[in-house]
Amino acid sequence: AWKGGKAYLNDEQIRVSDVRDVENSFLQLELPYNYQDYRPTIEHALHELYGKVSSIRINGSSAMSLCYVAAGRFEGWMEAYIGKWDFSAGALIVMEAGGQVTDFIGNEHFIDGHHIVATNGYLHQPLLQLVKAALPKL
């Protein structure tokens, strides 16, 4: 993918999913490398999100998770305390596939942020509201 050039996987254009209900969404979370420092916050977030979305997965790779959102395999991804080198390329792929990427507040100028949400676009505002409720301290 490149800015303005759409997103491709094996020479086939990819698009985000068209799921529009949070209850039917598959969400990915990632843990920061120093997750033990934030364990109470992470446990609280998982508790708050569990049951509000169809499924939550943690796969260990922000780049892969973002590509899964771009390819329509998941509806959203979020991670707190992440470096821009870990999400920048994947964020571009999501946006070129029709998705939306912001910080946890909803700012589209997210590149210098450390708390990032990527979605299929349809679920961005509802997932931001869930994030704000689950992670009020960030």
UniProtKB/TrEMBL annotation:
GO biological process: inositol metabolic process; signal transduction
The protein, known as: Inositol-phosphate phosphatase
GO molecular function annotations of the record: inositol monophosphate 1-phosphatase activity
Lineage: unclassified sequences, metagenomes, organismal metagenomes
